[in-house]
Amino acid sequence: QKTFLACLLVLSVSVAVSNAACYFQPFKPVNPGDEIKGCYDSEGELHEFGSEWKTANCLECSCFRDGISCCSTYATPVGYDEEKCVSIFNKETCTYEVVEKNDHSKTCPVYGMVG
């Protein structure tokens, strides 16, 4: 029974982590007939068609001929004691850590992840 519960826990965490939030932004030429040379990201940098990049906000983006597709690379913790604990996002690792509000050296149990 313990083995079954362990497998179920691993499966639920892996499904939640792989369920990224994505969006697609189609191109809107300023003038009809304008040639689109690639994808401009939110910083104004041009990316070639077929290229991929990671943003400072932990999104993985791809440039297609009809627009830009971006997906989050992280999952947001849910189902933890919000009165006792706080989630802290680390932009360097693109991960959340859930710790006690009064002592950030102590982690809190998390029962689910979304995103």
TrEMBL record:
Subcellular location: Secreted
Keyword check for Signal: yes
Alphabetical UniProt keywords: Disulfide bond, Secreted, Signal
Main localization, broad class: secreted
Record bears the keyword Repeat: no
Gene3D superfamilies noted in UniProt: 2.20.25.590, Complement Module, domain 1
One GO CC annotation: extracellular region
Any one Pfam family match given in the protein's UniProt record, by short name: PSP94
Matches recorded under InterPro entries: PSP94 (IPR008735)
Signal sequence residues: 1-20
UniProt record similarity statement: Belongs to the beta-microseminoprotein family.
Name of the protein this chain belongs to: Beta-microseminoprotein
Source organism of this protein record: Anser cygnoides
